[in-house]
Structure formats: structure tokens, C-alpha cells
Known about the structure:
Residues 1-139 form the AP complex mu/sigma subunit domain. The protein is built from 5 helices and 7 strands, in the order ββαβββαααββα.
Amino acid sequence: MIHFVLLLNRQGKVRLTKWYSAYSQKERKKTIREVTSRVLGRPDRLCNFIDWRDYTLVYKRYASLYFIFCVDKHTNELIMLETIHKYVLALDRYYENVCELDIIYGFDQAFYILDEFIMAGEVQETSTRLILKHVYDQNALEKSQEKKTGLSAIIS
Length: 156
């Protein structure tokens, strides 16, 4: 099971968090601080798995962002690395060469893509094509709703 997902930049600023287990705000802040120091302080030549508390941190760096998944010890780390890679590919296809600013200003879409991949801490869908189809359908639905709302506001 995936307990949380963090996206950090190289300076340690959190760009996206998604929690699948119950943590209080105080625990979340402490966890982010611990995980950030463990991952950013680690040399690049070492593997992308860290034993932390009763979990395993699986992370991968793409450009200036670290994608970190906290999973149970018995979870297959290589599958989690592949999940991270699929998520980055989906972001890259959606944003057409994703960068940190895309995630900052388009965080709602980044969350939506992540929600299409992972539900309740378990990987639900692995097809990037299908996930992006759902995201584009959702965008079309939002645009049609905005048009309806805009027209009703003009009529009123």
C-alpha cells in the first residue's frame, strides 16, 4: 500500500502531497521534514530505496523534482519505480514536457492524474493513454459546464 506521495524540488520545497493514510497536521509536517532530509541528503549514486521507520521510501529524480512514494516494506519497490515513471510520463504527455512550474500552476491537473493512477493507496490504472483520456474528458466537461454557467449568468 502507498501511504503518501511527495513531490519536492532540489531545494526541499514541497510541490505536491497526497496522503493515503491518516496523519495529523503535526505528523505530516514532521514526516515531510524527515523524508526531505533523508532523500535530499542522499548521494546520487546510491539506490532509490530507503528504509524509513516501518516503511520503504521509493524515490526518483526527474530534472529538478523528486517523486517520493512511501510504501509498506513488503511492496515491490521496482513496481513502485515503474509507477513513478508512468506518472511522470502521463504528466509529460499532458503538459507537453512537464516542468516544476507546470505542477505549481496546474496542481489540480497533477492531482487529477495522480488520482486516476492511485486510489486509496493502491495502483488502479496503469494505462497512460486511458488515464489521459479521462483527464481530457474531465477538462471537456468542465469547459462545457463553464459555458453553461456563463450563459446563465448573462441571461440573469
